[in-house]
Amino acid sequence: MRYLTEREQIVTVFKLMEERNLNYGYSGNVSVKVSEGEYLISPSGVRKASMKPEDVLLVNERGEVLEGVGRPSVELPLHIAVYKSRPDLGAIIHAHPIYATVLGVLREDLEPVVEELAIYVGGKVKVADYAIFGSQELADNVVRALGDRSAVIMANHGVLTCGRDVMEAFDVLVCVERAAQIYVLARAAGVPNKLPRETIEAEVALYRLRRGGGARG
Ligand SMILES: [Zn+2]
């Protein structure tokens, strides 16, 4: 079985997401780009926290299964569209965390209201326009809203985060969900204050520096 390390990373990240209430049950999907035009992706119809490395499927960019048994995630077209628009990426996570999805239901972008968010994401987290799950329209909407950043909220659905590897995409997911929780609670308690513009600009510059110029900007 090829790419055992990457398969194990995908299995591990689903367990971490379930433990931290960032995803649950059969929902969510994770992929890794293993070479040009070849990707590992989680299967559909499987309880994700119980997945084994051999359950992960190797597919090409036409969605054909090269190794493994089962059907790839219905969001495979979404993952492939994001990889095609962003050659800097090595991994993508799609999950259903609560607070970021609250903003997706409100269709409200998550501004960088706390330190760190813009360092991890490269700016605000935009809400991609709604389209039904698994559709090319959803893929197009997510690519447009993502731009050169590392996270996007999918209207009435969940989030997509990305990075050079799975753990980087996971760290972005944790950061986004924490910031969304803080923002939603702050709004419920009063009127949130914004970070100074210069702080956000400095953090975006740091994001681009850390990404080694790989992210387009
Ligand atoms: Zn989903």
Give a quick rundown of the structure.
This protein is an alpha+beta fold.
Radius of gyration: 17 Å
Let me know the number of strands. Answer: 8
The distinct ligands, each listed once, are: zinc ion
CATH superfamily placement:
Class II aldolase/adducin N-terminal domain
> Could you give the distance between the termini?
38 Å
Annotated CATH architecture: 3-Layer(aba) Sandwich
Major sheet strand order:
4-3-2-1-5-8-7-6
| The CATH top-level class label | Alpha Beta
The low-confidence parts are none
Helix content: 40-55%
Number of helices: 7
Biggest sheet, open or closed, and with what strands and sense?
A: 8 strands, mixed
Order of helices and strands: HEEEEHEHHEHEEHH
**CATH fold description:** L-fuculose-1-phosphate Aldolase
Count of folded domains? 1
Q: How would you state the average pLDDT, rounded?
A: 95
Report the structural category.
alpha+beta
Give the strand content. Answer: 15-25%
Shape: globular
Keywords:
single chain, 217 residues, alpha+beta, L-fuculose-1-phosphate Aldolase, eight-stranded mixed β-sheet, 7 helices, globular, binds zinc ion
Secondary-structure blueprint:
Layout: H1 4-19, E1 29-35, E2 38-41, E3 57-60, E4 65-67, H2 76-85, E5 91-95, H3 98-106, H4 117-121, E6 127-128, H5 136-146, E7 151-154, E8 158-163, H6 166-189, H7 197-210
Parallel strand pairs: 6-7
Antiparallel strand pairs: 1-2, 1-5, 2-3, 3-4, 5-8, 7-8
Zinc ion is lined by residues 27, 94, 96, 133, 157-158.
